Amino acid sequence: VFEDWNFLVPPRDNNSILERQRRERLKRSAAAAAAVLQDGTTELGEEMTEAASLDGGGDTECAAAFQQFSVCRPSVEASELHPAEGSVRELDAEDWLTYFSQEGVIEDDLSLRRRIFLGGLEPQLRSSVWPFLLRCYSFSSNFADRETLTQQNRSLYKQLTERREKLEGEEWEEFWRSVQCTVEKDVVRTDRSNPCFAGHDNPNLAKMKNILLNFALYRPDIGYTQGMS
């Protein structure tokens, strides 16, 4: 749900046929949007701007299409929450270690996943926990298994980087045209409100770019699609 989705369409030539057609299209779009938003997941905010000035305040029905709306977060009643909501503590580093056996196997992954689902986890644990949740590591793997897999993946990533940097001729031109030029445009538009990508010289932007480029090289059948960043 978009918290601050605001739009305001300025008036143009009221006397032209194209303008009237444009109004009708916007009116239908506004009606369709209102119908979707009335399903209970969101609610329309108060009307911020009247567009009666379009033609001297005459066509109020048409002017409704030019009003400004805000889409607000839905309110969730306590009765709609999971019965255990709020009763489970956030997973911290101390509790995280208790899920491992002596060999490093997570024996009760159901309990762990339930704990995280209901209580969340401390941000500093994400790099340790997410590989399990995303199936990069099997819950049944031990310390040695994960160390081996990590080294294999690092070696593969290094090989991909070297291979990409050695592209030349038609192969390089095709990769640039179909992947890299789009990636470089999108990476700089990554959400800068996120501390991980804030600032103009943030090194994490370069890391993001390299990950996307290497993935496109590794899986050319998928490549890169706008929004992956």
UniProtKB/TrEMBL annotation:
GO MF, one annotated term: GTPase activator activity
Superkingdom, taxonomy of origin: Eukaryota
Positions of the Rab-GAP TBC domain: 120-229
Keyword terms, alphabetized: GTPase activation
Entries under InterPro entries matching the protein: Rab-GAP-TBC_dom, Rab-GAP_TBC_sf
GO cellular component: early endosome
Keyword DNA damage attributed: no
SUPFAM superfamilies: Ypt/Rab-GAP domain of gyp1p (SSF47923)
Annotated PANTHER family: TBC1 DOMAIN FAMILY MEMBER 16, TBC1 DOMAIN FAMILY MEMBER GTPASE-ACTIVATING PROTEIN
UniProt name for this protein: TBC1 domain family member 16-like
